[in-house]
Design goal:
eight-stranded mixed β-sheet, about 25% helix, alpha/beta, two-stranded antiparallel sheet, binds cytidine-5'-triphosphate, Rossmann fold, globular, 5 helices
């Protein structure tokens, strides 16, 4: 099977030397990519800038901005059976990209940045890109994990959303451990707290199990499903 995975942060340039980004390390997405490749799948890993080594056996496509990530996903999603979106895509980018370095102005103690909304890549997978495979999203939250995950599941047309709490210092962004809540249409399952490597294997396993159960029914799906 072919897995398409997005990972890492995006960088949204403001001028030739500055950009907006976030604290995503890419570790969760790379761990999933590694586990999927190790279990014999083709993996296309589309990643924003990270400090990580590219896992063995994956086709790696580096990107910087949300728009670049969107374009590459659009190009490759057709051949994927499973698409897993772990990237921490910047929701907004600077409205203007200055050609030259922005200089500070004498006497100007405040500055307002105008931002414009980026495209929602995961949210475009079904309607805009016509993806009909298994669609998996992530939800980074600081409160109401299950509730927000359920609403993202529905709004973005996902089969599974893995939610993680990014408010603590020891799970979530930029650390080696994470704790995931798996939310499907009919079920919420706490996968517990583990290393991201371990969770990568669990995510791939859960995804394959979900496919195996043939959860591709119209609502309501039968009781034996997902
Ligand atoms: N995502 C995406 N493109 C975006 C924003 C998010 O593909 N422009 C994907 C992420 O990769 C993740 C899911 O959507 O799989 C949810 O991302 P998250 O940051 O948790 O939520 P948002 O949709 O950005 O909503 P909010 O920031 O309001 O919680």
């Amino acid at each position: 099977m072919t897995f398409l995975i997005t990972a890492g942060p995006t960088r949204e340039p403001l001028d030739p030397v500055r950009y907006l980004t976030n604290r995503s390390s890419g570790k969760m997405g790379y761990a999933i990519a590694e586990a999927a490749a190790l279990s014999g799948n083709r993996v296309i890993l589309i990643s924003g800038p990270t400090q990580l080594e590219i896992p063995d056996g994956v086709d790696f496509i580096p990107v910087e901005t949300a728009q670049e990530m969107f374009d590459v996903v659009l190009k490759w999603i057709d051949i994927a059976d499973v698409a897993i979106f772990t990237a921490a895509v910047a929701d907004y980018r600077p409205a203007n990209l200055a050609e030259q370095k922005i200089k500070k102005q004498e006497g100007q103690n405040r500055m307002t940045l105008e931002l414009v909304k980026n495209v929602d890549i995961l949210g475009s997978a079904r309607a805009l890109m016509g993806f009909s495979g298994l669609l998996v999203g992530f939800a980074a939250e600081t409160e109401n994990l299950e509730q927000y995950a359920k609403s993202k599941l529905k709004k973005k047309g996902c089969d599974i959303v893995f939610a993680n709490d990014v408010s603590g210092a020891d799970t979530g962004f930029d650390v080696d451990q994470n704790a995931l809540l798996m939310v499907t249409k009919n079920q919420t399952k706490d996968l517990g707290r583990h290393s991201k490597k371990e969770l990568g294997k669990m995510v791939v396993q859960a995804t394959l199990e979900h496919l195996g159960k043939g959860c591709r029914f119209e609502e309501p799906c039968p009781p034996e499903c997902c």
